[in-house]
Amino acid sequence: MSSDQPAPVAESTERYLQKLSLWDTVNIIIGIVIGVSIFKVPSAVFSFSGSIEAGFVVWGLGGILMLAGALCYSELAAAIPETGGDYVFLSRTYGHGTGFLFGWAQFIVINPANIGIMSYVFADYAVSFLQGPNTETSNSWTVTLASLSVCSLIFLNLLGLVVGKWAQNILTLAKVIGLAAIAGAGIYLGMTNTTPVPETVGGESGSGANLGLAMVFVLYAFGGWNDAAFVAAEVKEPGRNIPRALMVGTIGILLIYLLINAAYLFGLGYQGLLDSPTPAATLLGNAWGDPGQKLISVIIMISSLGAINGLILTGSRVNVRLGMDHRFFAMLARWNHRVNAPIYSLLTQGLISVAMIVLVGTGAGQSLLELPFQLLNWDIIKWEDYGGGFETLLAATAPLFWIFFLLTGLSLILLRFKLPDLKRPFRVPLYPITPLLFCGTSLYMLYSSLMYAWGLTLLGVIPILIGVPLYWMSRNKQSDVPN
């Protein structure tokens, strides 16, 4: 087969053991998506929405858009139930080159950055829990704890898929219990508060309606549900269970988000929610004082660890697929059958993630990243515009995430024409409206994220461009299994 033809994506499935049940896959989705956003962004969402009614509409619309994306991925994953998710879909649709660039982007930038983002959240709250919220702390402690969280979870996943999935299930269960505590605190305060709650309509208490910006925050809070497709080959009965997991997971997340937002409003009131940048901490602090503040730190730490573990488990499988098809990365495809885990992929992923944490979180690392631009007299990176490692990594990589999302959404439409005879156990309803809705959302988010990041985007784009010559040097190795 010539190198210009689409990637042969039938794979040697004997390397994978189908150990993930429907419940395991749902836990992966919930564990990744419900990270930390629900503890922070509701204040901004309702402020930019202008009223309670508009705020709930925006949250509901975000859930509908997420469900549209889940339906698209359900069709693709059920028709092509192979490990790698978007890598396989893009390879089938656009050829080896696009699939490689996605795999390379996930390997070198997107997934390590997402792991780093969540690890910074864990570290910030761990420092607050250990030393108190008002204690002045060294940034080195945050960087150290963030790195240790990644290394610890990489170690757990090195013990095998069974250990990794049980860690995910336990962390997700603890996260749900924590969210239930927030809901309970909201009900308790709402029932015991004798102070009249401000009127809930109108935008006068907010900062002025900007529904587009509110939607940016909401869609970020819903991000990550698609990662279940990365482990498709390890899911039992993938043609049936992946669509079910995506559907159950996304609907469950929407219901949880609506419940928690209702708890914030019931316990704090509309103005109280707008006035608090950390509504979860305010709510539990008002309900239970200092122990409540400690509890929210633990809840967010657990939530962050669940997101990190889910990203490690799913992202390492994309690296495996990259190694299967390209000789420069063959080491990533090595699979330890005794523990059923990609050892080298996990180790490399951890190393890159820790390197990112150190580079954006320390003065020496930032100076090193600035050096090439300083040599060209380009003053394009404004570290002071972003509040630490969390926002820096998010801004630098969000545009890359959304452009590949857009390409994957379009691939569903193109594959309907390109491979009309492909067996599709699940077909997206309301075609083509559903995929077009998903693609339009991705296009809007790509534009919004570019406007937010500006020059910082180059920190993510430049490493991906390095992948272009790497692809041309490694493209003569095809998949080991024929079409």
TrEMBL record:
Organism lineage string: Bacteria, Pseudomonadati, Planctomycetota, Planctomycetia, Planctomycetales
Tagged with keyword NAD: no
Membrane topology listed for this record: Multi-pass membrane protein
Per UniProt, subcellular location reads as:
Membrane
Annotated TM spans: 20-39, 59-80, 101-123, 143-163, 170-191, 211-233, 245-266, 295-320, 341-364, 393-417, 429-447, 453-473
Q: Name one GO molecular function term.
A: L-amino acid transmembrane transporter activity
* Keyword annotations of the record: Membrane, Transmembrane, Transmembrane helix
Q: InterPro entries, from UniProt?
A: AA/rel_permease1, AminoAcid_Transporter
The main location is membrane
Is ATP-binding one of the keywords? no
Source species: Gimesia fumaroli
Choose one Gene Ontology CC annotation of this protein and give it.
Answer: membrane
The protein's name in its UniProt record: Serine/threonine exchanger SteT
